[in-house]
Amino acid sequence: MGGTGLRKFGRRAAAVVLAACMVALSACSSKKTTTGTASPSAGTGAGKTIALGAVLSLTGAGGIYGPQQKNGILLAQDEINRSGVNGARIAVTIADDQSDKTQGAQQFQTVIQQGKVVGIIGPTLSNTAVGAHPVADHNRTPVIAPSNTGNGIVGSCPYSCTYIFRDSLGEAAAIPANLKVAAARLHPKTAALAFANDDKFSSDGAAIFKTALGADNIQLVDTEQFSKAQTDFSTYATNIIAKKPDIVAISAVGGVPSKLIVELRRQRYAGPIVGGNGFNSSSVSMQAGQAGIGAQSGSAWFLGTTTTVNTNFVAAYKAKYNADPDQFAAQAYTAVYLFADAARHASLTFSDVARDRDAITTALQNVSIDTPLGPFSFTSDHDVHQPIYVVAMDGAGGFTLVETVQP
Length: 407
Ligand code: 1QQ
Fold this sequence. Notes:
single chain, five-stranded parallel β-sheet, 12 helices, 14 strands, binds (3S)-3-methyl-2-oxopentanoic acid, globular, disordered N terminus, alpha/beta
């Protein structure tokens, strides 16, 4: 076989061998999950779609958090679809809950009934979740709550929550850890507490602060409450400052934390400020600006964590959006990977949606993957067990790490 023939033969044979290897390799690569353990049915999803819903606050009181969550979800979808899930693609339908409980419940109903989704990420606010999560649970559709940190979201809930999971650190863990760090460093004897009394997260956070302040022997000398729609905080700041507290605690969402911080500083309050999960957004840090420097909160994520999975996430997010991610982006990004890993292990039928929803729910209980939040698996009551990053606003839309508290 003349050289060329051989080469040609060789080339054709090489092409055939290469093609065979490619097939073997892709079978081999799709077998490997983010955790490296073999998945049951590589390739069975070829040409199929794993439909997920994401119901987020893109407008309304929580509209400061939703856009980062959306960015995190779309980035994860892109990355996962490069190799697929057993050959299938992930397709996430994103809807706006307008930070409203009824709207949230309606959007959940829509993605379940019409979208035939096998899982939902959302909503953004705990206040919306109490309306939306029962809809999913009733329809036996698994949910990962990416930022619902109030009480009774998972585990013992005021409604059936068998299908509800959360990858967002609860305030019941974050607030006491944050306050302990502040107490150990600043030794405050008195405190003032300010919170939004028409928002579940904010009211739960206020109750948790009250208990934690008591536990740290810090006397509560003033409590200010207002609506989450409040925009003028001059009176509340004056009342707080009049009581000369050693520290001020704020439990509120959206634009409230930054407005109150700015007003306290404008009225010359120079003392320490601590807050809840409502602080942990780059937009809130940016809006607080110089006035926010040092405002401290307990976070589920830190930009500077040097694990490979986190540095890859941060780099990919920056490349796609030309901006740093924040905790809300990291938790929403992680939620997609958690659903993808569950789908990889669930032997989906891609025809019987009810059976696939149940299979994913079961698989979520056994998920164990490395994420930007750290090595992640759900607790037995579908909650988070992770380190707490006590962070402080840096005056420019970011956060510095004060201390890491192990769970
Ligand atoms: C909740 C929260 C908010 C601050 C998040 C958006 O943690 O509503 O539970």
